[in-house]
Amino acid sequence: MRSVVTAILGGGQGARLWPLTRDRAKPAVPVAGKYRLIDIPISNSINAGIDRVFVLTQFNSASLHRHIARTYRFDAFSSGFVNILAAEQRRGDTSWYQGTADAVRQNIDRLVETDPTEIVILSGDQLYLMDLERFVRSHREANADLSIAVSPVNREEARALGILRLDRRRRLVEFEEKPQQDDALDHLTLDAGTVEATGADAEPGSLLASMGMYVFRTQVLVDLLNHQGDDFGKNLIPRAVTESDVVGFVHRGYWRDIGTIGAFHAASLKLTHQLPSLNLYDPDRPVYTRPRFLPPVKVSDCRIFESLLADGAILTGSEIRRSIIGIRSQVRSGSVIDRTVLMGNRSYGDTDENPLGIGHNCEIRDAIIDSDARIGDGCRLVNRDGVAYADGDGWYIRDGIIVVPRLQLIPPGTVI
After folding, report:
1. Where do the CATH 2.160.10.10 domains begin and end in the chain?
2. Regarding the domain delimited by 4-270, which CATH topology (the fold level of the hierarchy) does it fall under?
3. Which of 127, 144, 263, 341 is the most exposed place for a label (fewest CB within 10 A)?
4. From CA 67, how far away is CA 79, in angstroms rounded?
5. Which CATH number fits domain 298-410: 2.160.10.10, 1.10.720.60, 1.10.1710.10, 1.10.530.10?
6. Residue-averaged pLDDT of the chain
7. What is the predicted pLDDT for the residue at 357?
8. Quick one: which of 390, 391, 363 has its CA closest to 376?
9. Please, what is the Cα angle at 242 between 98 and 134, to 5 degrees?
10. Rounded Cα gap, residues 325 and 310, in angstroms
């Protein structure tokens, strides 16, 4: 894999994940208590032996840059790197990235300067683990110009994704971005023969969705970028179907596009299952992140059920159910945390009247508490009226999930 480079698209605005993306890029959003979303594609690349990685960034990227700089440092005897390519104005082109393909187009000179045989394009905001070495080798064995990672989805999911049809040799014969009409979905639905030929783990009536991950023969990508069009799904992939030899690579593992608050919350809580679909405990495919050298979790007189507890958390006299407790989180006596994601804190805070973390005698259910938030004593964050969407004083409800943004204070006794 030494002749391969990876480009990770991390420049999207992440509007549907707001307010978690209010102060940070979507790939910088914390996940599973101790990681950032960007750690997923970078770790997949490193585990495949691809150690030349570029991250293309644009919106709210300061914390993302800081995390990458602190985490991914290769030693002096390695040629590997994780380089940030931030959007920048240049002579003759003063525009920002106009789409996924345009982001790669504006940086193609840097991607090809080491003369790679293939360029792997990955999304920086999805939750998955993939054997990228197998992806690249499958591409080479098929002698393809472009390979697209695909995953089976149901009809409702298909309406928000790029859907494609493969023949029984895995060649891409048709691609449609976000099909809405039932007849279009019927036409693209997998038949039994294709399921068997491709080895897809698909239910009857499933469709194959593009995962937004590609392996390009380098010159093919350069040639495609010479044409107009700013987005891979809308512009370049349809053109490639008619001009190039394109194959599908069927991903048989876990994959979630966590573009909304509801999807992020659901995917996060599934990590607490005894046998989660996304295995973070595989020693052959570790997920790397910043080493923080934090002390062990401290638990005093608590009841804990099906939860993840990250380094440095302090839990006292509380009940934790089906939740994720992030780094340095503090939950005080009498509090109940249920189906909730605590993002964690950058420090343990001070000892003022509104300390960091969760106060005494709080009840928090179906919520996301962002980093360095302060929840005062006696708060009840339970969405008692079952509201799907609301904006409050220092809090929000999206998809029925209560979200408290980072650095926010919720006064003692607040009921939501």
Report:
1. 298-410
2. Spore Coat Polysaccharide Biosynthesis Protein SpsA; Chain A (3.90.550)
3. 263
4. 21
5. 2.160.10.10
6. 89
7. 93
8. 363
9. 80
10. 6
